[in-house]
Amino acid sequence: MKALVISGGGSKGAFAGGVAQFLIQEAKNDYDLFVGTSTGSLLISHLALGKLDKIKRIYSSVNQHSIFDSCPFVIKKRHGSDIITMNHWTIVKNFMKGKNTFGESNNLRKLIGNSITKREFDDLKKSKKDVVVTVSNLSLNQVEYKSINDCTYEEFLDWIWISSNYTPFMSLVRKNGCEYADGGLGSLVPIEEAIQRGATEVDVVVLHTEVSYYNRMPSRNPFELITTIMGYILDRIENQNIRIGKLVASQQNAIINLYYTPTILTTNSLIFDKEKMTRWWKRGYLYAKNKNTESMPIEPNVQE
Predict the structure, then answer these.
(1) Which has more confidence, 215 or 54?
(2) β 201-206/2-6 pair status
(3) Residue pLDDT, tens place only, 125-164
(4) CB under 8 Å to 44, separation ≥6 — which residues?
(5) Which residues, 6+ apart, have CB-to-CB distance to 52 below 8 Å?
(6) Which of 96, 173, 183, 246 is most exposed, with the fewest beta carbons within 10 Å of its own?
């Protein structure tokens, strides 16, 4: 069984889309299982359906309003770079309304509902492919994996949304009596789950560089401090997931092919810039193409 796993990474998901486009369209990989976390969960349904152009259009057109109905930060341009500061008024209003997060991402739920139709859901459920999204159950302190085969249409859309909610900046969702948040808080790169479900070869897109190339700048405000702390925690989770995935793969004689981002795409994946994401999609495609070209055996030049 062949699986495609896509990690979390916010707006960097555009790069993963480009990698997946090459692997599916050009390398002709036929995946039986798709497992995604956060932005990966947003991609995998369309990838499983083979609707690459559709998901590319979505990732090339979203902006902050497409995601947030209550955005907790303000993006300012200073000396050619993005500076993020807290949107104090929005945060205060959320707290006055009794919300327990800085921002709300209900617009993302609407976007998911508009992008995956009931007919597409039914077609995917009838197929032999399995699509699995990762969520974090904060109430039970555990990671859960939601397969399309176990869900109704509305339930599956909810799980995709929940998997992508990067709390405390996005919505915290209460479902089935429990509080749920971004799957990346527990399993950012769900390689182990793919292998446990029977995968013998796994292509993994990790939306992070293989080696850390930078030291984080000093935090200039509370918002940057929180994002720095969350980034540190997620980096540790990612490294642990990959180590465990490799260990399980060696025990099960499974093959893992890792696709990291070759360079740092952004230091804040909560910024959804249409132009940058369009470029990242193209870069992901070219990166996967070059990586696969380099790994191809060279035919000997035999002269008669």
Answers:
(1) 54
(2) parallel
(3) 999 899 999 999 999 999 999 999 999 999 999 999 999 9
(4) 4, 6, 34, 35, 36, 131, 132, 133
(5) 17, 20, 21, 24, 25, 46
(6) 96
Bridge partners, residue 37, by sequence:
134
User: 295 and 258 in contact (C-beta within 8 Å)?
Assistant: no
**pLDDT tens, position by position, 196-229:** 999 999 999 999 998 775 566 677 667 778 878 8
pLDDT given at position 252: 95
Q: Give the range among 9-13, 195-199, 292-296 with minimum mean pLDDT.
A: 292-296
Q: What angle do CA 64, 260, 116 make, to 5 degrees?
A: 45
* CB-facing half-sphere around the CA of 104: CA atoms within 13 A: 15
Please answer whether residues 6 and 12 qualify as being in contact, where contact means their C-beta atoms are separated by less than 8 angstroms: no
Q: What is the DSSP code string of the chain? A: -EEEEE---GGGHHHHHHHHHIIIIIS----SEEEEETHHHHHHHHHHHT-HHHHHHHHTT--HHHH-SB--EEEEEETTEEEEEE-HHHHHHHHHTT-SSS-B-HHHHHHHHHHS-HHHHHHHHHSS-EEEEEEEETTTTEEEEEEGGG--HHHHHHHHHHHT--TTTS--EEETTEEEEEGGGT-SS-HHHHHHTT-SEEEEEESS-SS---PPPPP-SHHHHHHHHHHHHHHHHHHHHHHHHHHHHHHHT-EEEEEE-SS---S-TT---HHHHHHHHHHHHHHHHHHHHHHSPPPP----
- The whole-model pTM stands at 0.90
